[in-house]
């Protein structure tokens, strides 16, 4: 049995473009005008994805003000989905696993925060904090528009301080 949760900010729980603040749309439009568009991506999808890249940072800030993080919200929802999976009689409870493709941080966080996970398969996760800190912080040094559009979901609150203290930056 596989559960594919529709988590906060994605799928049916995404924010409609018209509900995003005007300043987010202005930033996204500036980026869309500055960098050439990938012709393989339909214009409306590229526009929405670019807007959400800027909008996520506002959502992350609000989560921080409420004493959590965007990664924490999604991690909690993943634990709820995993508990649902474990509650089903047709699930082999002796070998539950978390698997993530492209968002390996979610499988890693589920493995770290749920005692029921027996294995985690992580396919596609940023390899270094130094590499993803540019993305998470959206510093002016971003080398490409694609890098600038990556999600900040990989950065649970306090992670930069923990990595700096460990000399990993």
Description:
The structure is a single chain. The protein is mainly alpha-helical and 169 residues long. The chain has one domain. Helix content is 50%, strand content 6%. The chain has 7 helices and 2 strands. It has helices spanning 22-34, 43-65, 70-87, 104-113, 129-137, 145-148, 159-165; strands at 97-101, 119-123. Strands 1-2 form a two-stranded parallel sheet. It is globular. The relative contact order is 0.13. Mean pLDDT is 76; it is low at 133-150.
H/E series: HHHEHEHHH
* Average of per-residue pLDDT values: 76
Number of helices: 7
Profile the largest sheet. Answer: 2 strands, parallel
Q: Give the strand order of the largest sheet, numbering strands 1, 2, ... along the chain.
A: 1-2
Structural class: mainly alpha
Number of strands: 2
**What fraction strand?**
5-15%
Runs in which pLDDT lies below 50 for 5 or more consecutive residues are: 133-150
Question: What are the salient characteristics of this protein?
Answer:
two-stranded parallel sheet; 6% strand; 7 helices; 169 residues; mainly alpha; globular
Compact description:
With 169 residues, the protein is mostly helical. Helices cover 50% and strands 6% of the residues. It has one domain.
């Amino acid at each position: 049995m596989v559960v594919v949760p529709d988590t906060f900010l994605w799928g049916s729980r995404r924010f409609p473009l018209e509900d995003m603040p005007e300043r987010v749309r202005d930033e996204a439009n500036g980026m869309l005008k500055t960098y050439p568009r990938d012709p393989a991506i339909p214009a409306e999808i590229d526009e929405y994805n670019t807007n959400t890249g800027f909008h996520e940072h506002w959502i992350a800030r609000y989560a921080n003000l409420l004493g959590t993080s965007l990664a924490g919200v999604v991690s909690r929802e993943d634990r709820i989905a995993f508990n649902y999976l474990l509650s089903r009689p047709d699930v082999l409870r002796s070998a539950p696993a978390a698997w993530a493709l492209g968002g390996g941080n979610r499988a890693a966080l589920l493995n770290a925060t749920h005692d029921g996970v027996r294995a985690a398969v992580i396919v596609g996760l940023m390899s270094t904090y130094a590499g993803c800190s540019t993305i998470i912080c959206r510093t002016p040094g971003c080398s490409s528009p694609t890098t600038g559009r990556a999600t900040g979901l990989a950065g649970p609150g306090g992670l930069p301080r923990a990595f700096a203290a460990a000399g990993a930056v």
